TrEMBL record:
It is a multi-pass membrane protein. One of its GO terms (biological process) is protein import. It is found in: Cell membrane; Membrane. Pfam families: MotA_ExbB (PF01618). Residues 92-194 form the MotA/TolQ/ExbB proton channel domain. One of its GO terms (cellular component) is plasma membrane. Keywords: Cell membrane, Cell projection, Cilium, Flagellum, Membrane, Protein transport, Transmembrane, Transmembrane helix, Transport. This is Flagellar motor protein MotA. It comes from Telmatospirillum siberiense.
Length: 219
């Protein structure tokens, strides 16, 4: 007996229209998943580098060494603008809270933009197995109908149709597993980055209370 070809190309060519559509959808989901993973990984590397530069500048005795661009620059600029603004009757504590709030807003604005399309990974991770399962159920129904028409229940007749049906579940899992792992990892990394930046902002504001605004501007 000749071996059964279970390559995805052969399975796709022999599959019904519905199963083919499911395989195409899952392939597109997989491509989208990996494009988002690569994009966010590169973006996180850049943001982490900027955060380390911000933390390093805060270890010195002056804020003049703060990065002038990127995420750190946006935070420093927001703090500088608020520090230069004076409001009558404002206490030192209120001024500090206003400056810190402006810097945190700048931080979150950048991080929110950076996390765009990240929920797609969660959607793919949760829905891809069910899309694959739909293709499997449909393929098995079609296989049983073909078996009934052929009036033959031998393994050689049953196996190809069942293999075709189960292939959509396999492809669905192949798309869902990386998406779920990447979403959890990237979400945790963005959360850790936000906490590090929040601590750095707190230290920066305390330095400003000592008489220096970001980028060395006097209060």
């Amino acid at each position: 007996m000749s071996p059964i070809d279970l390559s995805l190309t052969t399975i796709f060519q022999q599959a019904t229209g519905v199963v083919q559509a499911v395989l195409v959808i899952l392939a597109l989901c997989s491509v989208l998943c990996w494009s988002i993973i690569l994009e966010k990984a590169v973006l996180l590397i850049g943001l982490s580098r900027q955060t380390r530069a911000l933390e390093k500048s805060l270890t010195g005795g002056s804020l003049a060494g703060l990065p002038a661009n990127g995420l750190a620059g946006a935070i420093a600029l927001a703090g500088k603008e608020e520090a230069e603004e004076t409001k009558s009757g404002e206490s030192v504590s209120e001024r500090r809270q206003r400056i810190e709030r402006a810097m945190r807003d700048a931080m979150y604005e950048t991080l929110v933009k950076s996390e765009t399309r990240l929920p797609y990974l969660a959607t793919i991770g949760s829905s891809a197995p069910f899309i694959g399962l739909f293709g499997t159920v449909w393929g098995i129904m079609h296989s049983f109908a073909a078996i009934a028409s052929a009036n033959d229940t031998s393994l050689a007749v049953v196996a190809p149709g069942i293999a075709e049906a189960l292939s959509t579940t396999a492809v669905g899992l192949a798309a869902a597993i990386p998406a779920s792992i990447a979403y959890n990892k990237l979400a945790a990394d963005f959360g850790s980055l936000a906490r590090r930046l929040a601590l750095a902002i707190g230290r920066m504001v305390r330095r400003m209370d000592g008489g220096t605004a970001p980028n060395g501007a006097a209060r």
